[in-house]
Amino acid sequence: MLPIGEQVEVIPRSLTMHAAGILASEGIDSALDVYKSGSARRSKLGYVPYESDFSFRSIAGRLLQGGEPDGAAAIIDLALALDPDDEELCLMKDQLADSIARS
């Protein structure tokens, strides 16, 4: 417990999870803006931009496991907009598209 008057340090938040929330509420353009802005000024915003536990891949995987393929596809599209050369994400997008087409 902190003594009264002691300043609390900012606890870093997941920029990836924040961008995923913006994607759901405001769309991909807003999510891209938020993510890029947060990455450029992460220390001012208090976000951790590249944390492995909250990667776009793992968020998409959790959405798929939860039966939300459209949400997973949107997350993958956001991740590919940020890193279009990511071969693993491209493969994931193709596999997801095949899965959605079969269902």
Q: How would you sum up this structure, described in words?
A:
By secondary structure, this protein is mainly α. The chain has a single domain, classed as Serine Threonine Protein Phosphatase 5, Tetratricopeptide repeat, CATH 1.25.40. 67% of the residues lie in helices and 4% in strands. It has a two-stranded parallel ribbon with strand order 1-2. The model has no long low-confidence stretch (mean pLDDT 78).
Structure characteristics:
2 strands; mainly alpha; Serine Threonine Protein Phosphatase 5, Tetratricopeptide repeat; about 100 residues
CATH architecture: Alpha Horseshoe
In angstroms, what separates the terminal alpha carbons?
52 Å
Spatial strand order of the main sheet:
1-2
The geometry reads as globular
Tally of helical segments: 6
Task: Describe the main β-sheet briefly.
Answer: 2 strands, parallel
- Low-pLDDT stretches are none
Estimate the strand proportion: under 5%
Secondary-structure map:
Elements: E1 13-14, H1 15-26, H2 28-40, H3 42-45, E2 47-48, H4 56-65, H5 69-82, H6 87-102
Parallel strand pairs: 1-2
In short:
This protein is mostly helical and 103 residues long. It is 67% helix and 4% strand.
